Amino acid sequence: MASPASNGVPAVKGSFDKSVDFANYFCTYAFIYHQKEMLSDRVRMDAYYNAIFNNKHHFAGKVVLDVGTGSGILAIWSAQAGARKVYAVEATKMAEHAKALVHTNNVEDIVQVIEGPMEEVSLPEKVDVIISEWMGYFLLRESMFDSVICARDRWLKPSGVMYPSHARMWVAPVRSGLGDQKMNDYETAMSDWYSFVNDTEINYGVNMNALSQAYREEHEKYYLKTSLWNSLHPSQIIGTPAIIKEIDCLTATVDEIRNVFANFLLPINVDRTRLSAFAGWFDVHFRGSMQNPVEQEVELTTAPSIDNSTHWGQQVFLLHPPLRVDVGDKLMIAFSMSRSRENHRLMDVNFTYELQLSSGKCFKPVAIKYYIE
Questions:
Q1: Is the distance from CB of 340 to CB of 365 less than 8 angstroms?
Q2: Mean pLDDT, to the nearest integer, of 191-213?
Q3: Quick one: average pLDDT of 325-354?
Q4: Which end of the chain is more exposed for a tag (fewer CB within 10 A), N or C?
Q5: Is there a contact between 118 and 8 (Cβ–Cβ < 8 Å)?
Q6: pLDDT class for 35, splitting at 50, 70, 90?
C-alpha cells in the first residue's frame, strides 16, 4: 500500500532522474512528426480501430482511461463508440494538440485531456476500460507499460478490461546480409582510427594508442552488439519461431517485466543456409477478460510480413561470424532481457546459444550481450 506522502502512487524500484527521463524519452512524443509516423501505421491503426468499434459493448456508456493519449485518437474513437466519459492522459505538450483535435471532432463534452505523468494524475472516478498503445521496440523497450500497470492498479474497476489485454514476445533464427554490412562498417572505422593514431604521432608527436582499446569497445557496441531495427521478409526466417514471454495485461506486475528470462529451442527448417541473426518481435491481442470478453477478438502483430509491415518492425541481433546450418539442426537458447542501468527505458539482452547438428554433434555454448537502444 502506498504511503500517504505518495498520493496513492506506488513506489518504483530503482531511482532515476525524472527531468533526465523526460528529456530522453517523453520529449520525442511532443512532436507532431513522431505522432504522424505512428498514425500512418495502418496495421496499428486498423487493429485499434477494429478493436474499439467491433466491441462497442465495452465502451457504450462506460468510463475510459487512455494512458499516453498522444494525439488523442484512441480517446476520440472511444467517445465515438459511445463512452460516457474519457480521461485522456498525456505527459507532454502534445496534450495541447490533443485538446484541439478533441474540440474539432466535437467530443469535448466527453473527452477530458489531462496533461501530466500517469503516476501523478488523480481522477474523480474509477474506470471501466483502460486503453493504451504502450508497446515499444521488441515490446518492452521504453518501459511505458509500467505507467499502464500503475493506472490499472489505481483506477480500473474489478470488472474492468484492458485494451490490449494480452501480449507475446517472439524470437526466430534468420538469414540476412546486415551482419556483413555492419562488420564492414566496423572494420572501416577501426582502420580509420589506426590511420588517425599514426598521423597524430607523425604530425604532432603524441601517441594516441592508449585509447585504441576503448575506441574498439565503443565501436563493437555500436556496430556489432546493438540490435538493429529492420523490416524482415518472411523468407528470411529459417526456423520455427518461439514464444519467449506471454503477458496478461490484467495481472502483470512491473517485477514480471523488469527482467525476462526464457529457455527455448529453435529448430532450423531451411536447407543449407546461413544463420546470421536472431530476430525479435511481438503481438498484442484484444480479448477483454474471462468475465467480460470481446465480441470480436483482434490481433496486432509485428511479425515479418510481405505487405503489412509496422513502424515497430523487428529487432535484429546479429551473429559475428554467422553459422552454417541445415534442416534438422537445433539451437538451444538461454535468453534474458533486463533494463539498462544507465537508462531504464533501454534494454540489455543476453543470448547464450548452443548449436546441435542433426548428426548429433554439439558445439560449445556461446554467450553474447546485445543492447536495444
A1: no
A2: 97
A3: 95
A4: N
A5: no
A6: confident
142 is catalytic: yes
**H or E element in which residue 262 lies:** strand 259-267
CATH annotation of 14-133: 3.40.50.150
Query: Smallest Cα–Cα separation from 288: which of 280, 279, 297?
Result: 297
Average pLDDT, the chain: 92
> C-alpha angle 69/71/77, rounded to 5°?
75
Specify the amino acid at residue 151.
Answer: A
User: What b/e readout covers 161-176, taking b as 16+ CB neighbours within 10 angstroms?
Assistant: bbbbbbbbbbbbbbbb
* Residues in the chain, total: 373
What SS3 state is found at 252? coil
Q: Is pLDDT at 113 greater than 60 in this prediction?
A: yes
Catalytic residue among 37, 108, 142, 217: 142
Contact predicate 349/371, CB 8 Å:
yes
Residue 373 annotated to the active site: no
Mean pLDDT of 12-37: 62
Q: Find out whether 230 and 305 touch, Cβ atoms under 8 Å.
A: no
* Domains of the chain, residue spans: 14-133, 169-175+228-372
Domain 169-175+228-372 - what CATH class?
mainly beta
